[in-house]
Amino acid sequence: MICQECGQRPASLHFQKIINGEKTEFHICESCAREKGEGIPGSPGGFSIHSLLSGLLDFGAAGISGQPAIGNAPLAPIRCEECGMTYAQFSKIGRFGCSSCYEAFNERLDPLLKRVHSSTMHSGKVPKRTGGQIQCKREIEKLRREMHGHIQQEEFEDAAGLRDRIRELEKKLSEQ
Amino acid sequence: MSKHRFSRDALSDWMRDTGPDCDVVISSRVRLARNLRHQPFPLLATGQQAIEVQKQLTAVNEEGQLNDIGKFDTILLSDLSELDKRVLVEKHLISPALANESRGGAVMLSDNEAVSIMINEEDHLRIQCLYPGFQIAEAWALANGIDDKFEEVADYAFDEKRGYLTTCPTNVGTGIRASVMMHLPALVLTQQINRILSAVTQVGLAVRGLYGEGSEALGNLFQISNQITLGLSEEEIIDNLHGVAKQIVEHERAARKRLLEESRVRVEDRVRRSYGILSHALIMDSKEAAQRLSDVRLGADLGILPHITPQVMNELLVMTQPGFLQQTFNEKMSAEQRDCRRADLIREKLGSQTNLGGAEQ
């Protein structure tokens, strides 16, 4: 098979693009592929998750990253003080610059995270050493829920046991 | 020949073992993404900051924190040739992003290559654990333990509300990506695969090809992984993936059984035809090789080719990648030369298997 770009060299790269169910096949040689540089698995600059994300982000940031209408004063950009990244930059590349960006863009993240994960709150692992307080708080919340369950079932002895453990944990928390 | 043994053998030690359900599930993988609190993410780090991160994280191994887990070798990306990097990517030990785009990149590899800890990839730290067969919970347990070791000495970027903070919002929360690599030839042959895969994507899982994001499903190999990292616990994510993958395993087995019952001769013909071509062809491109090797692997699993070990397909898929071929034959090759070398290598490998087994005179 001959390369469909230059029509000279033999095609050595064969790939398919499927967009909305429409299939396109490409058969090109290595040097043309390098020039085109797109769509080759693993190659930088190809279509990536980040370009997809920025689509979602633009949606959430209408009026911020978009051009302000003529006559309107441009809005002050939202910026992360730590690394200097603006929300407009973030929405373009789909990646944060540092951990403080999460704080700086906090108000705008909920819709994005909801779309990507259907959730905005972490409920998994908490770091053992630095997350000590958080782990303690989560444990207290869990015990409270259990305690209320026991109270409703009129299992007061079990509830009292849990109450004591909650007090212990709360004491530990206030000492930290 | 490379100075690193990691880029010499095609088959990592961990792949020599067979795991549970290994007739369908090739391997299970868990990757955790972590970042340090007081450093900009690799995307914005200066060269000097990247080196600081590299030093801080590689020190965890040098100071013996990982001794309980196993013996690790630290390799700086700057010490590797382009070919070494390519081979490590082909073996899935490092990602293309670490190989091509990282600054101050490094990788810590365990002796049997089952654990690969990448530094300064998209995130400061990426812990990856690989197990043969269907052992996704085991892979999570190991990754979790390694994560604890790093956390003892490193201040992670963690937020009570958002969890582990990552460069890309698609990883935030647990930072976990769990995946299983499945060989699904019968579902492809019986044309059930699209229906099943589209169902998979509806329950928050993603399907990719052998070499990750954007790659084609060569050789009927599909990588199924979680998409959602926030709002679920790690155990829920693992259970969800496990449950779905288990069902796919059952579907694939049922499809294989039905193929044998309803069209045994056709299946056997297909397997033997591919075996014959691989054993005798002089030119073999990578796409055809992957497809034919998939047929042979199916034949091995169904007992049609009893003298072929299933691992030979795993090994040949890696060995016949461009970087590996170049390294094996120690020369730069055009695409056409590569196709010839690939055919040579496969003939040789299958030939040695036949002699070992003594069958098929």
UniProtKB/TrEMBL annotation, chain A:
GO terms for molecular function: cadmium ion binding; cobalt ion binding; copper ion binding; zinc ion binding. InterPro entries: UVR_dom, UVR_dom_sf, YacH. GO terms for biological process: stress response to cadmium ion; stress response to copper ion. Gene3D superfamilies: UVR domain. Residues 137-172 form the UVR domain. This is UVR domain-containing protein.
